[in-house]
Amino acid sequence: MNNEKEIKIIRGTTIVCFLFGVLGVAFAFLAGSKSMMLDGLYSLLQSLFILLSSFIVSLIGRKEDEKYNFGYTAFEPFFIIIRTVMLLVLNLSLAWSSVLSIIGGGYRVEASYGLIFTALSIFGCSIVYVILIKGARKFKSPILKAESRSWINDALLSVAVLLSFLLMYIFDKIGLAYIASYIDPSLTIIFVITLLPVLFKQMLSSVSQLLGRSPTKDVKEKMSQIIKKYSTEYSISSFKIYSISQGRSISSVIHVTVKEDIGIARADEARGLILKDIISLFPWADTDIVFTLDPSWFRYSIPEAQALSLSARSAQ
């Protein structure tokens, strides 16, 4: 199963991430660098969330049960929200610490330790990013995609740290050593500022999924094309798709109106063909298809019934 392959990828990256975190914090203490400390803490926190990711991936692979009748797919965006909030807190805390350092006159960094770690970090993070992004595309996994973003951010942070050490070296050589004291905290602040929009966008996307956001127009258009393919054969005159997207899952109710009574057997045949085509495109789709000759009762069915009920209350 795809879930098992995802979990293997996640477990492998956990070990790498934890090792980078330990090395990053250790070298940060030796170098006296807050930007390196951000890099190391980022990796340690990330390793914790990668472990939780494997649990979430196994969880969403479970079938529905008495407690969760519609399965566990909503746990995926919920987990990404928690993870993103923690990263935001970490980044903002270190940015504030760097602001205080600048106000206090900056600090010096031992560049030799930083150069060793950042070179290893850039190389390692880039390789893991490639593995994760390929896995995310293959398995259509939001969790692997979120993890890949974290690793590319970690790699970019390492590049920024490397540049800061090079700038310190240059300023020292040209007699501007006092400026070098401000480079590391300034770079930490700049990196946090550039990272915030990505984290906020990721969090808002997951929040909208928990609130029942519809999938992209492209997804609904592809589903529409599948139904239209069978319109003539099964006398379909019209249809309406209601969908929500939660993580990799797409839950849909499709109301289909037919021109003539095609019978239960024919309706089941059409339903089976449509569902088979939808699943081939969207493996995590959960779709209900309702056929009718008389569409007037649809307005009493969820989700249209909700709007009808609100309209009736406002008229009273």
UniProtKB/TrEMBL annotation:
GO molecular function, one term: ferrous iron transmembrane transporter activity
Membrane topology: Multi-pass membrane protein
Matching InterPro entries: Cation_efflux, Cation_efflux_TM, Cation_efflux_TMD_sf, CDF_Transporter
Residue intervals passing through the bilayer: 12-31, 43-60, 80-107, 113-132, 152-171, 177-200
GO annotation, cellular component aspect: plasma membrane
Record-level GO BP terms: intracellular zinc ion homeostasis
Keywords on record: Membrane, Transmembrane, Transmembrane helix, Transport
Residue stretches making up the Cation efflux protein transmembrane domain: 15-211
Cleaved signal peptide residues: none
Record's subcellular location: Membrane
Keyword Membrane annotated: yes
Pfam families reported for this sequence: Cation_efflux
Residues forming coiled coils: none
Similarity remark: Belongs to the cation diffusion facilitator (CDF) transporter (TC 2.A.4) family.
Stored PANTHER family: MITOCHONDRIAL METAL TRANSPORTER 1-RELATED
Protein name: Cation diffusion facilitator family transporter
Organism, as annotated: Candidatus Ornithospirochaeta avicola
